[in-house]
Structure to design on (282 residues):
């Protein structure tokens, strides 16, 4: 039985590693495709100058799935876009963009043209699902123009989930009431894209904090099941009763995509609380 248990654990670890490798591969492919599209746009702009804006702003060779070329000038005016920002063409967008986009734009203006292609991250609406998501952009300044192509980053990683769990556990130890209040405020750093924290009081076995669904507060965690009726709370409580930390895989709704997906949760016992953060597999 001991040998069988070890083989099952090993198999689970291999599947987890494979899933992480596939996610990394997807991001690498997106990154390469975005950069290649920008290089193609730069070459086209070199040959056609500002006449290239018409090609950049229509559905065609400069739009690849949710990746598209956009151009702003150094004053912040949108000059071309093959995506939803085409509605902003001709407008000064420097004042209507979020702080992270403004920061990225200001940094872009500081980079000499000779430095070649640069990259930045900010949040932007994904036109495929309507969600505001993290986006990585490759860009290059050509004179008074900044040409760019971005792609939306995949789901948060296992490393990010573990980091958020450790942060929440540490904060809960220092300030129990304040941390629970912050988690339930659905902000305060405990909600990061599709990552969120939930906390269960092990004495009462009821939720005391949840990063996305306040309707679960004070409900019996022991009775929680996945959308297909498979127990989730009961096996997690049984696991954490035997050890101070652990992991558990189940199916749950992703707050970003709105779909039921495979989820891998990291668990930690902090005093009489169970603290958990899970990441969604691709």
């Amino acid at each position: 039985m001991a040998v069988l248990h070890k083989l099952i654990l090993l198999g689970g670890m291999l599947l987890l590693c494979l899933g992480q490798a596939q996610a990394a591969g997807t991001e690498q492919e997106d990154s390469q495709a975005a950069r290649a599209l920008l290089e193609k746009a730069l070459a086209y702009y070199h040959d056609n100058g500002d006449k290239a804006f018409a090609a950049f702003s229509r559905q065609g060779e400069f739009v690849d799935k949710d990746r598209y070329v956009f151009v702003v000038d150094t004053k912040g005016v949108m000059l071309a876009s093959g995506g939803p920002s085409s509605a902003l063409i001709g407008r000064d967008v420097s004042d209507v963009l979020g702080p992270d986009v403004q920061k990225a734009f200001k940094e872009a203006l500081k980079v000499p043209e000779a430095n070649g292609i640069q990259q930045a991250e900010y949040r932007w609406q994904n036109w495929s699902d309507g969600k505001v998501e993290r986006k990585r952009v490759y860009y290059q300044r050509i004179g008074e123009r900044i040409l760019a192509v971005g792609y939306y980053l995949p789901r948060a990683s296992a490393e990010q989930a573990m980091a958020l769990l450790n942060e929440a556990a540490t904060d809960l130890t220092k300030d129990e009431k304040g941390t629970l209040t912050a988690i339930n405020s659905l902000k305060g750093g405990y909600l990061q894209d599709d990552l969120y924290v939930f906390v269960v009081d092990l004495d009462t076995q009821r939720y005391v904090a949840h990063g996305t669904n306040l309707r679960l507060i004070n409900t019996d965690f022991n009775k929680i099941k996945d959308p297909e009726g498979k127990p989730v709370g009961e096996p997690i409580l049984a696991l954490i009763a035997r050890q101070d930390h652990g992991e558990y895989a189940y199916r749950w709704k992703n707050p970003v995509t709105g779909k039921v997906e495979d989820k891998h949760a990291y668990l930690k016992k902090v005093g009489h609380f169970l603290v958990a953060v899970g990441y969604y597999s691709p």
Remarks:
- The chain has two domains: 26-153, 158-281.
- DSSP finds six helices and twelve strands in the chain.
